Amino acid sequence: MKIKSVAVLGAGAVGSYVIWGLSEKSDIRLGVIAEGERAERLKKNGCAINGKTYHPEVWTPDEAHDVDLMVIALKYGSLEGALESIQKVTGEHTVIMSLMNGVDSEEIIGRTVGMEHVLPALIKVASHKEEDGYHFDPPTTLGIIFGEPSAPFDSERVKAVEELFADTGIHFRFTEYIQEEIWCKFCLNVCSNLPQAILGAGVGCYRDSVHMKAISDGLKRELEAVAQAKGIDMSKTESSSGRGSAVPPSARYSTLQDLDAGCHTEIDMFSGELVRMGKELGIPMPYNEYTYHMIKALEEKNDGKFDYTGKEELTWSK
């Protein structure tokens, strides 16, 4: 098996890393899946990444049908609406890699197109958007981790993806413990992404505040209890799996970036999903319940729900 065509669904912070890494590869066709105004904008403006503009092809889902590899790099809230497009793109031999956050995107995609198409994966890249496009630091980016969910682990498609990435700038690693790796990434997102989003401070807050560290540790304990109940042994992963890409103390992860931009976050996929699993398993989740409601309230604040300018009616606490 040789990968000769790659389609990227989602050309944001995560998709930009893939586009950047594969754009100089001359022996493949690289395209971004888009329709309507977004497609026209991509055709005209390209993808601005690390100060350079790249011009991958732009394909409709029908035009991308039967690509060798489809990389899904959407925000979680966009996945349900994209399932029809994913189904159109998927051909008999299409391999799908989801680089989305969370622990259930593969399952959702697999229910639509069949799990046999899905090669489980995750990405660790500290990417952020500025006025001139998306930026990340290639040398310190940990990159893409992927692997088969069960033996044989050295499958033809694993070898094909390794060959695809081998002569690019993309950092990658194959693992025999991909589910455990995905949960380690999930743990990083919940414990490092969420508390700083409530505080509105850079990641240095975990180093400099015992209170922020206590909140992060509380979230982690709850997540580990759920993982253990599900038979996920995160200790099987490599030592590097417990950390993200190196960043300065001022760095703001994706949830805080979303709030800064006035957007809704992926909190439903983080603490929301953990609370749901905790209820199913009978595991108390007080830290995650509080975090979920706080970030939902911050979304409401961004939506203007608490703008009381000109409203003089009296109220009181209940």
TrEMBL record:
Pathway this chain belongs to: Cofactor biosynthesis; (R)-pantothenate biosynthesis; (R)-pantoate from 3-methyl-2-oxobutanoate: step 2/2
Keyword Transport among record annotations: no
Domain Ketopantoate reductase C-terminal: 178-299
The family this protein is said to belong to: Belongs to the ketopantoate reductase family.
GO cellular component: cytoplasm
Matching SUPFAM superfamilies: 6-phosphogluconate dehydrogenase C-terminal domain-like, NAD(P)-binding Rossmann-fold domains
Known role: Catalyzes the NADPH-dependent reduction of ketopantoate into pantoic acid.
A molecular function GO annotation: 2-dehydropantoate 2-reductase activity
Gene3D superfamilies, alphabetized: N-(1-d-carboxylethyl)-l-norvaline Dehydrogenase, domain 2, NAD(P)-binding Rossmann-like Domain
Annotated Ketopantoate reductase N-terminal domain residues: 6-133
A biological process term (GO) from this entry: pantothenate biosynthetic process
Catalytic activity: (R)-pantoate + NADP(+) = 2-dehydropantoate + NADPH + H(+)
Keywords recorded for this protein, A-Z: NADP, Oxidoreductase, Pantothenate biosynthesis
UniProt-listed Enzyme Commission number(s): 1.1.1.169
UniProt name for this protein: 2-dehydropantoate 2-reductase
Keyword NADP: yes
Pfam families in alphabetical order: ApbA, ApbA_C
